[in-house]
Amino acid sequence: MNKKSTLLGIFLGVGAVIFAASGDNVIEEVAWMIGDEPIYKSEIEQAYLDMQNEREPINGDPYCVIPEQIAIERLFLHQADIDTIEAQESMVQMQVDGQMNFLISNLGSREKVEQYFRKPFAEIREYYAKNLRNRTRVQQVRNSLTKNLKVTPGDVRRYFDRLPADSIPFVPLQVEVQLLTINPVIPRQEIEDVKARLRDFADRVNRGESDFSTLAVLYSEAPEGMRGGEIGFMGRGQLVPEYAAVAFNLNDPKKVSKIVETEYGFHIIQLIEKRGDRINTRHILLRPKVAEKDLEEAQVRLDSVRADIVDKKTLKFEDAVRLLSQDKDTRMSNGVMVNNENGTTRFEMSALPQEIARVVSSMQPGEISQPFRMRDPKNERELVAIVRLTNRIDAHQANLADDYQTIKDMYEAAQSQAIVDKWLADKIKDTYVRIEEGWRGCEFRHKGWLRDN
Fold first, then answer.
1. What is the β-pairing status of strands 278-286 and 433-435?
2. Rounded to the nearest 10 degrees, how much is the dihedral formed by the CA atoms of 339, 103, 238, 190?
């Protein structure tokens, strides 16, 4: 399964379990009491099915592990109440919008989502919103407990020295690269042709001759095209500025916007619905294409630049980047690519754009590639690039010299968990806990749950 279908399975599995299992007029079996809050058998069963759908490993008997996890969450949420910690509602709604849009895009429509879950859309939204609020509040409490944790290089070194050999992680192959790109100029006539097509679409919709959704399915180059161009409810900050500026000024759902240019291409937009500070629109996206001859010319130009660096040695790679590169993310950093997932300059091969990974896989540090074509991940526009492999760290068992940040992260995680475990031990001791017969024969991760009750 690919990542998208896996995510869909998680959302659908969790929701189907929750909503199918919910019923009225059922006498609930209480498994635990935490303070004055019960943990019902049905909650545990639902959580078990959720974890199976999410393929989340359960280390131990699920009827021991899961109620303990629920009880721990209750303790964190109680502390959040004491500290008046609340989730930022705008962020919660933004994330829920994303989840709902994901469901709509994969099931086909809002009505089909309701049919699948057999619940009104508002009820489905609130279920996801409640989960997000709880997770956010729990994380904020955990962060407040560990915010004063300080880590020194000496701490990290002593931690590493005490690690058993079988606990030292294995680090896969990583590389560090510099990138130089040239984006060939798109011919003016190509841009005008794209705009003319979009104007024709807009005129046909405004005259009532064509349906916007149908045109989006037939012609849009956006991923949303197959569902009629609808992107779902979005806040202004979730949209690129040029798109948001036009979309939020639309008032008539029957009319089509002027042409909007963004980093993704050219759009026309139609309003579906406004709801507070969020808006639902549909759009048609067309991307002007780079001419083959311009791509060939860019390759010849970069081949000449490479010769100046490698053969003639009259130019440094870093200087060429500052003079020529059109990659806005790396131009001001001498072409050095930064991994957004970990904030470092190191990439596992799977984290690089596939064209770059394919090129650097056979290179040695210091080498500069031949010019090659690649697609901009944002707008699919073809461009020409060369890369310099600056470092290659072969797969190895972690060590302090090469992997300090990895080991530091491990130490911080261990120390943070120790702080949280100590807090939980105190919290459990000070909280009324009752575990009913039939739920007590467990080896719990945390001590103190079982009492003479």
1. unpaired
2. 80
The residue ranking higher by pLDDT, 437 or 102, is 437
How many whole angstroms separate alpha carbon 38 and alpha carbon 433?
Answer: 10
- Name beta bridge partners: 180: 386
- Provide φ and ψ at 363, rounded to 5°: -95, 160
Contact between 45 and 424 under an 8 Å Cβ cutoff? The reply is no
Structure tokens at 266: 């050219």
User: Residue 35 in contact with residue 416, Cβ under 8 Å?
Assistant: no
Tell the residue number behind the tokens 């021991």, with chain if given. 64
Residue type, 56: E
pTM here is: 0.67
Greatest distance between any 2 Cα atoms in the chain? 84
What distance in Å separates the CA atoms of residue 316 and residue 305, rounded to the nearest whole number? 10
Q: Are 235 and 277 in contact (CB under 8 A)?
A: yes
pLDDT in tens, 250-292: 999 999 999 999 989 999 999 999 988 889 999 999 999 999 9
Closest CA to 316 of 385, 366, 383: 366
